[in-house]
Specification:
Helices cover 46% and strands 0% of the residues. The protein is built from 5 helices and no strands. The longest helix is centred in the first third of the chain and has 16 residues. The protein is rod-shaped and about 105 Å long.
């Protein structure tokens, strides 16, 4: 009888010590919009092509088409991102500084993601 009571006690102890593990809800991942040339074209047209156009100085790259700007960005010596981030008044782009941080971030993200058309 003692053995039966002991076994019953052990079973009760095991049952009471078990707890239900809750499976956590998966955290939804935010939808990250990937920048494309189409999504940044208006920024380029409004802030870059005033100087970076075909009929401007031959030493300034032409940014009026995707092929022109992507050709420039493929060059390992391009300074596109550095110039957007610069505070140097003689180096930064655009020189007038009239580009919001949000637009800078979008252009930089587009370049870093592989300047998708």
């Amino acid at each position: 009888m003692k053995q039966l009571a002991f076994s019953f006690g052990v079973v009760l102890l095991l049952i009471s010590s078990c707890k239900k593990e809750e499976i956590p809800e998966p955290i939804p991942t935010p939808q990250i919009k990937q920048e494309t040339y189409t999504s940044v074209k208006s920024i380029i047209d409004n802030t870059c092509t005033q100087c970076h156009a075909e009929n401007q100085n031959a030493y300034i790259p032409d940014f009026t088409t995707y092929n022109n700007i992507s050709g420039y960005l493929q060059n390992p010596a391009n300074t596109f991102v550095d110039r957007l981030n610069s505070d140097d008044e003689f180096y930064k782009m655009p020189p007038n500084g009239e580009l919001s941080q949000e637009d800078k971030d979008r252009l930089i993200e587009w370049v870093n993601d592989g300047y998708i058309e």
